[in-house]
Amino acid sequence: MSATAAARLRKELSLLATDPPPGICAWPVGDSLTHLQAQVEGPDDTPYARGIFLLDILVPDSYPFEPPKVRFVTPIYHPNIDSGGRICLDTLKMRPAGSWTPSINIPTLLTTIRTLIAHPNGDDGLMPEIVS
Amino acid sequence: MFRDDGGPTAAVRGSALLPCNATCTEYCGFIEALGRQFRIKIRLKSPGGQVDAEAFACDAELSQILTSAGALPALRLRLAQTPDPASFVAELQDVLQRLLRAAPQSAPAPAAYYSRLVAEIDKVGWEHLVTISERLSHLQLRVSDAAGRHHVIGVTMPPDYPRTAPTCVADLPAPFALQWRAGQSSLADVLGQFRAALAPFLPLWEVLDDLDAHTHVLEPEHRSRAIAQRRVALAPHCSLSLALNPLAPRAAPEVRFLGAQASLAPFKAAVRCALWAQASLAPFKAAFAANAPRTWDPSRLLRANLEAALGAPLPSPATTLREDISGDCGICYQYRLADASGGGGSGGSSGAVPDRVCDNARCRRPYHPACLLAWLQGLPESRTSFGTTFGTCPYCSEDISATS
Does A88 qualify as catalytic in the annotation? Predict the structure, then answer.
């Protein structure tokens, strides 16, 4: 992993440890900086409230120029998340298909995912049967 | 019958190596090079076969010669390719002879040298001595100037001291040239000349110390008395690069503005007005200067003049935090870019600082030029002409460009 990525990840992890966004907890798996896990609490006033969802995050060597790969480990019934835990979210994809930029970091990305849980995107469903 | 054909039971030909186990896979003994002998121990992968270069061991003296020359990794590589112990020994001897020839003769100096050195240090006073090397050939001496600043001079004694002048390394803006009269000069003269060499720069250090104490100095990262250059923070993401004349530190320095053009414009106009009015800078504009306000006053320190010219005090560590003045790069989250080229050159400036700032007044995100370029080049919609890549800011999506 590049020095840029390692330095930035260390900073993000200390940010996650000292000042985590609401309902989000993330930590490195073992000594590796490239493999992280996160827990996202289901947002209140949604069917997911009181649920805790485990996510697996793989950070590429070229981070932050490329987005991390995020996957739900906990099964979730959601129109934008398939049975394998894959997430349909444009911030998780490179341009031009997606909208990843280095201005997004892991705390903001997890917040975006938490918002996606609360506000499913019906136009872009991975699971057509759930959308209806 | 004793065979001497390099066979498994024999000693290794051309060397003083003897087997030290029954299967003849381990040898120890001596290797000779340029009249010096070193004890070594080798292990063979099979009897009479290749030497295991990883298991090669030697005495401390040889190990020191090999490691100090940095030859060990290359040597291991070469030794790993030798087919048998005899060629291993020949190869090692060859390398060793070359290293010993290249290494300087390090015979201890005659006793008279030491007694003379101690007498000279006695004369200048032991309180001036900071460090001295193991062989008493290199020492550092310290003196204090009128303002109580400490200055250290490194003195390396030649083997035929005092016939040859010692080499001196001093932290001065100008090179320190030692005047040496063989046989008559001593360390006292070195210190005397060093003190004299310090004198012209006292005003410079006064100006620089004032800057260092009362402003956010972004560069150089590691201060040195030799550097007459400072980059001081002006406002968030704006800074002022000052190159002082070491011998006339109170005159107007060479000023360069760094940061977003829009936020710098008022500062630039103010400073330009102040410099323009300085008669010594533009004598042919004397008529104009006489009318313009003479704000640059050489009797004041540089910081006072700058603040007068800018019409506002420079941000000081007493009132602002460094983080508020200059943010980390929006891409790598670092202030100093982790420098792959290891550029820790003069002035100790290691790695670039984020001085490419988004021109959007509401964004003002700083980037390292290299980080921004890497991002823009990866964008499908970016375009490059004449080495400049145009794209959009990762934060505000305004147009931004980076030059390679």
Answer: yes
Give contacts of A 35-94 with B, CB under 8 A.
64-65
Which residues lie closer than 8 Å to A1 by C-beta, 6 or more apart? Answer: A33, A34, A59, A61, A63
A12 CB neighbours in chain B (<8 A) are 333
> How close B318 gets to chain A, by Cα (Å)?
26
pLDDT (tens digit, 9 = 90+) per residue, B272-316? Answer: 666 654 433 344 334 333 433 456 777 888 888 888 777 778 888
* All domains in chain A, ordered by first residue: 3-131 (3.10.110.10)
Which of B329, B331, B373 has the most A C-beta neighbours within 10 Å, making it the best mutation to test the interface with A? B331
d(CA A12, CA A22): 15
ipTM of the complex: 0.85
Asked if the model's pLDDT at residue B258 lies above 90, the reply is no
Q: Which residues of B17-49 are buried (b: 16+ CB within 10 A; e: fewer)?
A: bebeeeebbbbbbebebeeeebebebbbeeebe
Q: pLDDT tens digit string along A30-66?
A: 888 889 999 999 988 888 888 899 999 999 999 899 9
